[in-house]
Structure formats: C-alpha cells, structure tokens
Write a structure and sequence with these properties.
The chain has 178 residues and is mainly beta. The protein contains two helices and 16 strands. The longest helix is centred in the N-terminal third of the chain and has 11 residues. It is globular, with a radius of gyration of 17 Å.
Length: 178
C-alpha cells in the first residue's frame, strides 16, 4: 500500500440556489474543471444532476463544519482605518485567511494555505498557497511552485517575476515586474 499526502484544490459553495449555481458554473466552470466542489447545505437534486451531467467531481456536506482548512485570526491586525487587514507572520499550511476588504501580507503564504479577499491584496513574499482575489488589484512578489492566484476568475500559476493584476473596464490587465 502507498499513502501520500496531497494538497486538495477545492471550491466550497455554501447553500447555493440552483439557478445562481448554474450561472456561476457556466461563467467560471472552464477554470474550475480540475477542482473538487464541496457543496455545503441541504442536498439539491437539480444541482446534483447538473454536476453529474457536466462531469464535475463534487461532494455534499450537510454540516457547515470546515473540512479542509481552519480560519486564522492571529497574527492579523487591522490598520488604523479599521478596514485593511495586515498579516505579519507566514500563513501556514491548512490555514485560510478571509478579508472582506483590502489585505497586506508581509510574510510568505505557504503551500496548502489559502487567502480569500474581497478587496485589493499586496503580498511582499512569494505565494506558494492559493490566493483568490476579487478586488481591484493584486500585487505579488511572485508565484512559487504550486502557488495559484485566481484573480476575477483568471488563473495564474508559477511565475518568478512579480505580478500586478488590475480589474479595469470589466477585464483583467496584467503587468510583470522585476
């Protein structure tokens, strides 16, 4: 027998409505093909049938327990404006940091960790985990091996150079930096 630990790439959906879910997958599904979908909430036969038809890999979880990660609160700080999240220490494997506004990361984001940000993100160290950013910009020092940036649905993988992503006029603009 061989046993191997792997990082599971997964999207969690909480209590999705059938129509809303179907529209989301029609828009973003091509980028999500190689991920597991974890659907939390009551079983929905219409969504289940849709996922089977489209041949996605998925699982239902009726409980709202966090199965794959734990949220982290420390060592995050709030800025003086009370909106920007500042994380001074590395984000460790298995941790998830959620920011409802802008976020600044001063240390490494390790493999197996995840950042979900509604606002802009600035990362002063390489990204080895996953960053999902829906803000107007994401500025990264680089994306290391196994790292993944999802910026407004577009996926970016390993890059040695820095990266500036901007959401302008309804589309993603990219600049590489030294």
């Amino acid at each position: 027998m061989r046993v191997k630990q792997t990082n599971l790439r997964c999207f969690e959906f909480e209590s999705p409505g059938a129509e809303e879910f179907r529209e989301y997958i029609k828009t973003h599904g091509a980028l999500m093909r190689s991920y597991l979908f974890l659907l939390k909430g009551k079983f929905n036969a219409e969504i289940d049938g849709f996922l089977k038809e489209e041949k996605f890999v998925y699982a239902w979880a009726e409980r709202s327990a966090r199965l794959f990660s734990k949220s982290v609160s420390a060592p995050a700080l709030q800025s003086k404006d009370g909106k920007t999240l500042i994380v001074r220490k590395p984000v460790r494997s298995g941790e998830t940091v959620r920011a409802d506004a802008d976020a600044i990361f001063l240390a490494r984001v390790n493999s197996g960790s995840q950042i979900e940000a509604a606002g802009c993100v600035t990362l002063f160290a390489p990204l080895f985990g996953m960053l999902v950013c829906e803000g107007e910009c994401a500025i990264l020092r680089g994306i290391g091996k196994g790292g993944l940036l999802i910026f407004h649905g577009e996926v970016f993988e390993e890059r040695q150079k820095g990266l500036r992503c901007f959401w302008e006029n309804g589309r993603v603009e990219i600049e590489e930096t030294e």
